[in-house]
Amino acid sequence: MSGKKKIIIGIAIGIILIIVWMQFINIGEVLSYLKNLKIHYVIIASVLYLLSYFIRSIRWRQILKPVCKLSIKEVYFTWMAGFFLNYLIPIRAGEFAKSYFIDKVFDSFSIFLVIALIPLLHVNISKPLLILIFLLILVFIVGVGILIISTVNKPLVVKILTKFFFFIPRKFKTKFFEIIEIFVEGVGLFKHHSKILPSVIGLTIIAVLIDSVYFFFMFRAFAQVIPFPIILFGYTLIYLSYILPCPPAQIGSNELIMVLVFSVGLGLNKEMVSAVMSFAHLLTGIIIVVVGLISFSYIGVNIADTFRDVNISEMENDFKDQ
To answer: Which of 62, 180, 210, 290 is found 20 to 30 A from 221 (Cα to Cα)?
Structure first.
């Protein structure tokens, strides 16, 4: 399937998710919350959002240390350029894919924060949310297991994973197993560089905390004072959900997941949380595009050529799979 077709399908799925989301809410009530928006809190939230991704770029720099050395400025703009590209066209290829997968493995460590917060929350957590937490714990255990075994016996992990996913249709197997090998090879980098693990985990915790402070101020922008532990719990779950495939620019998926976590799961007003997430989604989308364009300019890469190269790469991979 070509890159353009994937984008079209992704956008169609996003539109379906938006329609599903709109079935849960009253649009009129959502819009009413926008009338009292406090801009100074929006500015604070925007700075914190950028700061959280600066911390993640530093973490990425630590992950890449074994294979290349980049300055802080270089790694930030390179990371944001890749993030912007992946935001618009979800891609998983080459060295960027390797670092992306490893990056997401460490994002999953934040599940510990979620578990630790459960006793501190003075709310009744719904069964669907408990099921989600259980599944994320399972994903974390599997991810850490792969991380550990890959440092000892990479071929064994590849063999186990390829057998486990035996049910994948033949036409997709080649590409899928290539992804498995990229992932395992990436996590195997830590075999001789285990000293960077503490700093990578520490940066992950800092980034998660800054994310939650950002979202705390987004709630304040709508005159909502929500206890920080609830925001930390809910937004960490939402960010963990980004590990899963999503439509381009996360169309529809953000809003729907926000309602499922904060409203269905934690009992907050669904129109209020929908207003917060809808505005936050628009705001962060603008930030990602603006910073992404600046980043492409800084690293001296023509964005039009990049998009064309992505489409060509997709076509070549499709040809190989036929």
So the answer is: 290
Half-sphere exposure (Cβ direction) of 207: Cα atoms closer than 13 Å = 25
Query: What is the reported pTM?
Result: 0.73
Stretch 42-51: mean pLDDT: 95
Which of helix, strand or coil describes residue 15?
helix
Q: Which domain holds residue 104?
A: 3-321
- 101/124 Cα distance (integer angstroms): 34
| Under 8 Å between Cβ of 158 and 181 | yes
256-272 pLDDT, tens per residue?
Answer: 788 888 888 888 888 89
Q: Are the CB atoms for 127 and 119 separated by under 8 Å? A: no
184-198, 252-266, 267-281: segment of lowest average pLDDT? 184-198
Q: Cα dist. 197→62, 105, 148 in Å? A: 9, 12, 12
Give the residue among 65, 67, 99 at the shortest CA–CA distance from 83.
99
Residue 136 corresponds to which amino acid? L
Dihedrals phi, psi of 27, to nearest 5 degrees: -60, -40
- Report the distance separating Cα 10 and Cα 288, nearest Å: 19
| Number of continuous H segments (helices) and E segments (strands) in the chain | 14, 0
Which of 230, 233, 214 minimizes the C-alpha distance to 276? 214
